[in-house]
Amino acid sequence: MSSRRSRASVSEEEINELISRLQTLLPSASRRVGSQASTTKLLKETCSYIKSLHREVDDLSDRLSDLMATMDHNSPGAEIIRSLLR
């Protein structure tokens, strides 16, 4: 979270608001507009979604590494990719 809470407890209303906000961030949950998923199911879906994002990042990183390995390091394409990664 970008801001830390100064108090240790969180009200039920705040938890419900956070769960609602979380539900809007999940692609599978957003298809169920108007349907309240259980908190447990929503948290499991969140974990699954985060894991899939990690796998996607790893895959894209591997593909980029493979691409960079096949390119001439002085080529304009390689320079563009390096500048995008900075």
From TrEMBL:
Keyword tags: Growth regulation, Transcription, Transcription regulation
Looking up InterPro entries in the UniProt record yields:
bHLH_dom, HLH_DNA-bd_sf, PRE
Quick one: a GO biological-process term for this protein? regulation of growth
Taxonomic superkingdom? Eukaryota
Ranges for the BHLH domain? 1-53
* A molecular function GO annotation: protein dimerization activity
Positions the record marks as coiled coil are: none
Gene3D superfamilies from the UniProt entry:
Helix-loop-helix DNA-binding domain
Check the record and name the Pfam families matching this protein. Answer: bHLH_ILI
Instruction: State the family named in the UniProt similarity comment for this chain.
Output: Belongs to the bHLH protein family.
This protein is called what? BHLH domain-containing protein
List the lineage, top down.
Answer: Eukaryota, Viridiplantae, Streptophyta, Embryophyta, Tracheophyta
